[in-house]
Write a structure and sequence with these properties.
With 243 residues, the chain is α+β, with helices and mostly antiparallel strands. Helix content is 58%, strand content 11%. A four-stranded mixed sheet has the order 1-2-3-4.
Length: 243
């Protein structure tokens, strides 16, 4: 049996240079268990091959499953913001531009989430008769109270917020995939290539619940609840990789 476990501590000799080079890299342990013999451990360096909005949403689900509700809301919010970035990157390719053009644009808005949201809203709204699905004013107020005012949310409210974020992201992904699968693939490749260091590292997916695919939202909703239940059964706190 082979077990992969991450080493999230930035401690030498395995992780110091790895984290310094790229913030998405990590060190994990390969444990080989053969019958009753002692486990043999090997250290490997790797990097995540999932999009940031997928990773952040998975962290939020782990927080929801293990009771870290405020952390979950923050992670879901960050996931949504990184989805906005991914959406804009997809449209950059769809409109015939390239990754270098996107970098120049993103430098203008990278430190201002309001501008990022405005760019997303403009791209998602113009040239279509269907207004994009967004968070409601009530959901935005809930997010601001938790993130900025230190309110501790209930599990029910956190679960409802997670579903709302999921609905916004999956609705947008469905539209992106309907318009141009090629642009979506280019955006994925661009994000992953940006974090991949020059030296050879192993690519590893966390097998996130939130996948880039078209699916009826009722299935997303039901499967999210099943996923949270499995996470809750498997650990009482922290994150288990891969799922």
């Amino acid at each position: 049996m082979i077990v992969w476990t991450p080493d999230l501590l930035k401690a030498p000799p395995y992780t110091s240079h790895c984290w310094a080079e790229v913030d998405d890299s990590f060190v994990f342990t390969r444990i080989g268990i053969n019958d009753a013999k002692d486990a043999l451990e090997e250290k490997y360096s790797g990097f995540f091959s999932d999009c940031r909005f997928q990773i952040l949403f998975e962290i939020g689900l782990n927080g929801l499953a293990s009771g870290f509700l405020r952390d979950a809301v923050v992670s879901f919010t960050a996931s949504l913001e990184r989805y906005y970035e991914f959406f804009i990157l997809c449209h950059t390719f769809q409109n015939g531009s390239n990754a270098e053009y996107f970098k120049k644009f993103w430098r203008l808005v990278s430190n201002q989430s309001e501008r990022q949201y405005g760019a997303f809203l403009a791209l998602a709204s113009l040239g279509t008769t269907d207004f994009p699905l967004l968070l409601t004013e009530t959901e935005v107020s809930f997010r601001n109270r938790v993130v900025h005012k230190g309110v501790f949310p209930s599990k029910a409210d956190t679960h409802s917020y997670a579903l709302s974020v999921l609905r916004v992201i999956t609705s947008g992904l469905e539209g992106l995939l309907a318009e141009s699968v090629d642009a979506v693939n280019k955006a994925i490749d661009t994000e992953i290539s940006e974090r991949k260091p020059q030296r050879q590292l192993i690519s590893l997916s966390i097998n996130p619940f939130l996948r880039i695919e078209r699916r009826d939202f009722s299935l997303w909703r039901d499967q999210m609840d099943e996923h949270i239940q499995r996470l809750g059964q498997r650990h009482g706190g922290g994150i288990i990789w891969p799922n």
